[in-house]
Amino acid sequence: MVVFTAYPLTPDRWEDFVTLFGPSGACYGCWCTYFRMPAADRKLLDGAAKKEFIRNRIEAGPPPGMLGYVEGQPAAWVQVGPRADVPQWNSPRTVSRPLDPADAEDPSVWALSCFFIGSRHRGKGNSHRMVEAAIGFARQSGARLLEACPMEQAKTSKSLGLYVGSMRVFEAAGFVEVARRKDGRPLMRREL
Questions:
Q1: Which of 11, 103, 116 is closest to 68 using CA atoms?
Q2: Secondary structure of residue 13 in the 3-state scheme
């Protein structure tokens, strides 16, 4: 039996986050900045600047997500927090925009917007484990709604494109579809 644990990403876990993301910063050097700043601003930053941006965000608190461990080693990440913390996730042009525009600023409406699972740990149920950890974290932090905008299908369970998660994983965790603005990308919600 695999020992899996997950913890909020606090500054004392920074080195584990860096270990998981590797020297390139995961997902083509994103460092989980994609939903945090406009594309025009993000494109001006190199990998080191994106890394510094997310480090400053982690140090400022509250934790911007959860770090998962397999056998004590960093293995998985999920970005989860209030919608306001990921402003690009709320853009009127995105499939993840809120049903009610006021939800974008409501501290009790949270977004589970990104995953990164280390390559050795993909296809082994760790996305399911991270969603469950995120649900618990959101609930303990006062969220009343948790939303996601996953992919309905991917070529394989190890696809890097699954950074938004798989619809199957969210369905298994009790999320329901509340909108579909683009084929294959449902907006899903779980009441907490």
A1: 116
A2: helix
User: Which residue type does 159 have?
Assistant: S
- Select from 80, 78, 103 the least CA-distant residue to 90: 103
pTM equals: 0.93
Q: What is the 3-state secondary structure (H, E, C) of 82-147?
A: EHHHCHHHHCCCCCCCCCCHHHHCCCCEEEEEEEEECHHHCCCCHHHHHHHHHHHHHHHCCCCEEE
What type of residue is 134? A
C-alpha–C-alpha distance, residues 73 and 54, integer Å = 21
Q: Per-residue pLDDT tens for 123-154? A: 899 999 999 999 999 999 999 999 999 988 76
3-state secondary structure of 36: coil
Q: Which domains does the chain have, with CATH numbers?
A: 4-191 (3.40.630.30)
